[in-house]
Automatic annotation (TrEMBL):
This is Luciferase-like domain-containing protein. One of its GO terms (molecular function) is alkanesulfonate monooxygenase activity. NCBIfam families: F420_Rv2161c (TIGR03619). InterPro entries: Lucif-like_OxRdtase_Rv2161c, Luciferase-like_dom, Luciferase-like_sf, SsuD_RutA_monooxygenase. GO terms for biological process: alkanesulfonate catabolic process. The chain crosses the membrane at residues 68-89. The keyword Transmembrane helix applies. Keywords: Flavoprotein, FMN, Membrane, Monooxygenase, Oxidoreductase, Transmembrane, Transmembrane helix. Residues 11-281 form the Luciferase-like domain. The keyword Zinc does not apply.
Amino acid sequence: MQLGALVPFTDTGGDPSLVRDFALAVEAMGYDFLEAPDHVVGGNPATNAGTDPRRGIADDMFHDPFVLLGYLAAATTKLTFFTGVLIVAQRQTVLVAKQAACLDVLSGGRFRLGVGVGWNPVEFTALNENFHNRGRRSEEQAQVMQALWSQPYVTFKGRYHTIDDAGINPRPTSGRVPLWFGGHHEHTLPRIAKWGDGWMPNAYPPDQAALDIFAELRRLTEAAGRDPASIGIEVWTSCGQGAEADWRREIEFWKRAGASHICLTTTFGRRHHHRIAGRTIADHLAALKRYRAAVADIL
């Protein structure tokens, strides 16, 4: 299994030297990847609190993932990078395919594209996209991006996209950017089975429900004519509660369950996850160092 970490923007901010030093420290500790969240705009907390308080995220800082990860790829040598997740349905598909291909080339193939459909209508309104058909569009977006990555010229006529014998340059060296899906909607697993390289669930604790849903993903993948072993699974974990023995038991469970990637988040505090108490960059790095030391031999 690979072990990665989520950039703790909401605590540490986005100062360029701080973000770079964080990535270098994570790389030096032996982490395999660094994951960046995505929000283009956020609602005003004062006016959105009466609807869904999550809409009011304008006070939280998020660097654009492509710009951030391009910057960090130039500063590092071994870390791979991942969007966790890019809200692809609120963006132009061909532009995302181009940005992902460029990042793949400039990083030397150290990039995975994690995508999701989003949950905040405020962002879709601001970006002039339709919030209500985002799931259906994301299915077609996957097909369009994969065609543009693999073929020099593409002709495509779908429900939402038209390409008339055109292509992007550069294209990824391998002809493909690994495409992973986040989310837990009932349609997510069939989309992964048809077009995805992996799934990023964070809703399941280490129990039978996780084993059952992983088995369902493998069944759907096989039914789609693909090898279930080719589909990665990244689960999120946290270290704000429990101690080394607890963390080891959880990692051992995920390894037996077939997870390929573990992402440690020190700020996420929803569902069964618990954020750390500290807020400084030193607090986050200390937590990352302690966690990896506890589980490294199991990976």
